[in-house]
Amino acid sequence: MGVAIDVQGLTKSFGSQLIWNDVTLTLPAGEISVMLGPSGTGKSVFLKTLVGLLKPDKGSIVINGADLVTLKEHDLYEVRKLFGVLFQDGALFGSMNLFDNVAFPLREHTKKTESEIRKISLEKMELVGLQGAEDKLPGEISGGMRKRAGLARALVLDPEILLIDEPDSGLDPVRTSYINQLFIDLNAQIDATFLIVTHDINTARTVPDNIGLLYHKHLAMFGPREMLLSSEEPVVRQFLNAQTVGPIGMSEEKDADELAAEAASGQQLPPLPPIAPQLGTSNGEPRRGERPAGEWCRANGVIPPPGSFQGPHTSVQVPERTLDQRPELDVGASLDHGAAS
């Protein structure tokens, strides 16, 4: 069963370069969360800090009552056993076949017999669809298979927390869809707490229970999926809908002159697109973090964009906003630098 991660006031710098400041959020136990942000905003640094590979300058990371920031190395090593990590490229050993790659953590960190190791490793490989590929080398398989092998290796110690760094990197849209469905099914089966760093907007819109956005050295927003997908916050709206109009520029944020030129030319962000139904499990069984479509919007009096939550297996009555009901958006509005939850 997954455990919650409570992050309070986390700040990280490299020398004089501030990466992010005062990040505060709680990753709910057993739920899937996604962390978004423009390139260079420190998403991968955030993952490494959560698992204790990097020390923050300030703040706390509390798991099961223990603050990872202040733990001694021996105790930190024990807490790390709660984690499984899938790196961007799978991080497989090129000279080992897939079976030995998957079995490596068991041989390194446990005293299990080879027969036990083989049983567990083959179970995890079957779980990610790699049965029959045990003898292949990483250089002989596709990028998607390497991702799945890395995922199987992350699962062999039965982690309660799974950190996943850009799983869609280098994958085509079809393989990305397959791995997204795999995350949903895995979360239902193992009930672990997932945090996925991604740039893929379709993944962000359809997979997670919660979404966060790092921007301009702070956490712009974190909360339930529907909260961010219906948000009028300019940076959240621009990023989640992949628009050029708004405060995010090519380098990171636009300067005042660029924003003024946009406003003078009458450029505005288009209406919010419909909120798609969240991906369900392959067998139709519910997950712990799954919420009824439109529940957050109804509970908070938010009218979602027209056409929201419509899918082949979705029947939900949620009032839809019209263009007249859509608030005017000032793309030059200053951002709230506090984290919303």
TrEMBL record:
Domain of life: Bacteria
Ranges where the ABC transporter domain occurs: 5-241
Database matches in InterPro entries: AAA+_ATPase, ABC_transporter-like_ATP-bd, ABC_transporter-like_CS, P-loop_NTPase
Disordered: region residues: 255-341
SUPFAM superfamilies documented for this protein: P-loop containing nucleoside triphosphate hydrolases
SMART domains found in the cross-reference section: AAA
PROSITE patterns named among the record's database cross-references: ABC_TRANSPORTER_1, ABC_TRANSPORTER_2
GO molecular function, one term: ATP hydrolysis activity
Assigned keywords, A-Z: ATP-binding, Nucleotide-binding, Transport
Protein name: Phospholipid/cholesterol/gamma-HCH transport system ATP-binding protein
UniProt organism field: Knoellia remsis
Lineage, uppermost ranks: Bacteria, Bacillati, Actinomycetota, Actinomycetes, Micrococcales
